[in-house]
């Protein structure tokens, strides 16, 4: 497992990127794929071919016209079926021939799977190992598909991208991959996720720099949200431990009578546990569920939050936690996870699954301990080191390694473990 070596040229790389798994309302791995494609399109050393679902090509063409220009505009192939089961079959039976008909150097599957019969170098992103370690957190059909996909990638991919050191180390333990593992963290869109001038909001960030004073307030008003609030951003699913957050909020709500808990995300598999937790809470009427939140609203929610809580039991990366730090928002998250790894000492860490510790962490921030401002400043510094430009450069190193490995070339000395 290694840090990607600096990309030192090698000409323009013809890259195939599978974007067919990105839904209309992207979160998690879908958001990663969009941000990676955007950053790659801004580069001059890659020619991008995007494989999208049928009927979804316009979205990717629009992204290309907005980011790329001239010979940097992507080739969009809207060939994949819409339904997931049929799309997975298409990836194995049809995509290899389509890839072979083009002048492509490398194919990247950014969501665990890869076309196993393809004859060109293959790169796969493995986000986490919870399909293996905690199948109870996922739908059974997904467990079957993605467990196998991870093992196939470990055996067959030339390079595997893992989004955190924790994921990379666990992959090495479980699967002993034959290809090289590259630890490549996500980036942050710092044009969107940034603190505002001091005094303009609960986290010294009520309004984005350059925005009108009402912009964040108007956005929150449309969502039915009013400060002060504790914020969770993400899909409501078992590993996010949202019922624990509801119970922890219930413990501190009596001492903060104006405080609400905002759950910003759509219900996922297993979200019934969230409904039960809210129904059992004394202050369940102060829990606001916004449903899916459009991308443009997330920075406003983070900047206005009194505290961002991300109590996930396990995560591949936990991008909302890093985005909270970028906005200067105090963060409470779980120890021993990728979020603890990426937050670099800027977050209040609690034991996963411990409601009392989670409540104490929220209380520490809400009561304004002396460490809050220090952590906020550190969080902004930590987040500043993560950019999508840097992430794209590290992905490019993985692509060039895969191409060189496949051609039996020496890709150079590894840069050493991260």
Please describe what this structure looks like.
The chain is an alpha/beta fold and 418 residues long. It has 2 domains: 13-187 and 387-406, 3-Layer(aba) Sandwich (Rossmann fold), CATH 3.40.50; 215-384, Glycogen Phosphorylase B (Rossmann fold, 3-Layer(aba) Sandwich), CATH 3.40.50. 40% of the residues lie in helices and 15% in strands. The chain has helices at residues 29-41, 57-67, 84-93, 95-100, 130-133, 140-156, 165-175, 215-223, 242-252, 272-280, 298-304, 319-326, 338-343, 355-366, 371-384, 388-406; strands at residues 13-18, 46-53, 75-80, 106-109, 122-126, 159-162, 180-183, 229-233, 260-264, 287-289, 307-310, 331-334, 348-350. The protein has a 7-stranded parallel beta sheet with strand order 3-2-1-4-5-6-7, sandwiched between helices. β6, α7 (165-175) and β7 (180-183) form a beta-alpha-beta unit. α8 packs across α11 (298-304), α9 crosses α14 and α12 (319-326) crosses α15. The chain starts with 12 loop residues before the first strand and ends in a 12-residue tail after the last helix. The model is unreliable at 3-8, 204-214 and 409-418 (pLDDT under 50).
């Amino acid at each position: 497992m290694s840090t990607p070596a600096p990309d030192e040229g090698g000409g323009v790389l013809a890259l195939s990127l599978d974007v067919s798994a990105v839904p209309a309302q992207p979160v998690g791995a879908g958001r990663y794929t969009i941000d990676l494609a955007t950053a790659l399109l801004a580069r001059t050393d890659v020619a991008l071919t995007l494989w999208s679902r049928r009927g979804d090509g316009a979205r990717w063409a629009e992204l290309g016209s907005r980011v790329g220009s001239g010979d940097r505009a992507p080739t969009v192939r809207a060939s994949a079926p819409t339904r997931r089961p049929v799309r997975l079959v298409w990836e194995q039976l049809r995509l290899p021939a389509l890839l072979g008909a083009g002048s492509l150097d490398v194919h990247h599957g950014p969501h665990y799977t890869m076309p196993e019969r393809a004859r060109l170098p293959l790169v796969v992103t493995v986000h986490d190992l919870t399909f293996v370690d905690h199948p109870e957190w996922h739908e059974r059909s997904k467990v079957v598909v993605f467990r196998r996909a991870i093992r196939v990638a470990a055996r067959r991919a030339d390079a595997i991208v893992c989004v955190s050191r924790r994921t990379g180390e666990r992959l090495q333990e479980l699967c002993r991959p034959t290809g090289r593992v590259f630890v490549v963290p996500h980036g942050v869109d710092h044009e969107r996720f940034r603190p505002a001038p001091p005094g303009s909001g609960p986290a010294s960030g009520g309004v984005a720099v350059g925005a009108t004073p009402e912009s964040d307030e108007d956005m929150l008003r449309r969502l039915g949200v009013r400060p002060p609030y504790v914020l969770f951003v993400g899909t409501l699913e078992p590993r996010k431990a949202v019922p624990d957050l509801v119970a922890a909020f219930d413990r501190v709500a009596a001492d903060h009578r104006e405080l609400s808990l905002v759950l910003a995300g759509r219900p996922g598999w297993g979200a019934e546990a969230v409904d039960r937790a809210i129904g059992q809470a004394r202050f369940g009427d102060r829990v606001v569920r916004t449903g899916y939140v459009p991308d443009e609203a997330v920075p406003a929610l983070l900047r206005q939050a009194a505290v961002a809580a991300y109590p996930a039991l396990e995560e591949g990366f936990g991008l909302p936690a890093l985005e909270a730090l970028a906005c200067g928002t105090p963060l409470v998250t779980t120890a021993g996870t990728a979020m603890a790894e990426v937050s670099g000492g800027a977050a209040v860490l609690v034991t996963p699954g411990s409601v009392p510790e989670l409540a104490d962490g929220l209380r520490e921030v809400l009561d304004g301990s002396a460490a809050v401002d220090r952590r906020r400043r550190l969080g902004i510094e930590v987040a500043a080191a993560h950019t999508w430009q840097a992430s794209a450069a590290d992905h490019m190193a993985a692509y060039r390694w895969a191409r060189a490995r496949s051609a039996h070339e020496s890709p150079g000395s590894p840069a050493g473990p991260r």
